[in-house]
């Protein structure tokens, strides 16, 4: 059994407490497809119920910590203490359509002594497969008790790359198309699975070799970024710097693949 801090235990307990209801709700979605409005309302309620369960668990464990959560936004806490960053249901469109690919994402953000902040713990939990991807700064990334390492592939032509595609009301389709035009012909394949937290966890696990997407929120990416870094990979914004949250841009992979993807993206945006 791999040892980990009490925070990972708290995060795992919160995710596992919300998971059974999410699984039941997911099983009900297919029965609601007869109504145009019904499924979307139902999934919105499932999202909010999961968030309430997770927030209650996290606040019980650390009453003075703040939270940044998808539905409720910022919940104030002691500004000198860390805060939780939570996405209770990443992949709501998949959930709505009965596609079994979604996750709970929880991360811890701590203030650095010299200013700024960093992600120190992260968990991405897939309720349907019971896969728990977790990481702690300086202690590695894990899937349950198995150590994770990013892919060892070095050539883009052998690599499978994840992304997100702009959709109704979100993202710049022309910008995405120019990046895809640069990357698509160079790689073995491009996948769009619809849950950024799981995409990043899969890069950490070596299931995909790299990833790019923009217009993402911190709750989509905080845990996954730490997973990749602790699995030996790199995450940056499109310019190669570490202003991912600020610019809402993410490119990730092993050292070799990250570097090549970042250069292709930078060239496409010039």
Automatic annotation (TrEMBL):
The UniProt record lists the keyword Metal-binding: yes
Pfam families: Inositol_P (PF00459)
Cofactor(s) named in the record: Mg(2+)
UniProt signal peptide: none
PROSITE patterns: IMP_1, IMP_2
Annotated InterPro entries: IMPase, Inositol_monoP_metal-BS, Inositol_monophosphatase-like, Inositol_monophosphatase_CS, Inositol_monophosphatase_SuhB
Residues annotated as binding Mg(2+) 2: 90, 220
Biological process, per Gene Ontology: inositol metabolic process; phosphatidylinositol phosphate biosynthetic process; signal transduction
GO molecular function, one term: metal ion binding
Catalytic activity: a myo-inositol phosphate + H2O = myo-inositol + phosphate
Binding residue positions for Mg(2+) 1: 70, 87, 89
Family: Belongs to the inositol monophosphatase superfamily.
Protein name in the entry: Inositol-1-monophosphatase
């Amino acid at each position: 059994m791999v040892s980990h801090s009490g925070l990972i235990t708290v995060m795992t307990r919160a995710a596992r407490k919300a998971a059974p209801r999410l699984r039941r709700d997911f099983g009900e979605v297919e029965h609601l497809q007869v109504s145009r409005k019904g499924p979307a309302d139902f999934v919105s309620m499932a999202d909010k119920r999961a968030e309430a369960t997770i927030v209650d668990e996290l606040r019980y464990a650390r009453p003075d910590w703040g939270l940044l959560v998808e539905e409720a936004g910022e919940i104030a806490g002691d500004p000198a203490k860390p805060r939780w960053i939570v996405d209770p249901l990443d992949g709501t469109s998949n959930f709505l359509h009965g596609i079994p690919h979604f996750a709970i994402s929880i991360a811890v953000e701590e203030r650095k002594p010299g200013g700024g902040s960093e992600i120190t713990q992260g968990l991405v939990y897939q309720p349907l497969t019971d896969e728990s991807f977790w990481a702690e700064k300086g202690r590695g990334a894990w899937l349950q008790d198995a150590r994770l390492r990013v892919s060892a592939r070095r050539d883009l032509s052998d690599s499978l790359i994840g992304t997100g595609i702009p959709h109704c009301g979100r993202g710049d389709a022309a910008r995405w198309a120019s990046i895809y035009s640069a990357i698509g012909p160079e790689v073995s394949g491009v996948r769009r699975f619809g849950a950024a937290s799981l995409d990043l966890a899969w890069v950490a696990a070596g299931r995909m070799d790299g990833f790019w997407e923009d217009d993402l929120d911190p709750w989509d990416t905080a845990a996954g970024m730490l997973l990749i870094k602790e699995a030996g990979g790199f995450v940056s914004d499109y310019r190669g710097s570490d202003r991912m949250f600020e610019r809402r841009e993410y490119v990730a992979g092993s050292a070799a693949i990250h570097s090549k993807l970042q250069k292709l993206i930078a060239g496409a945006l010039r």
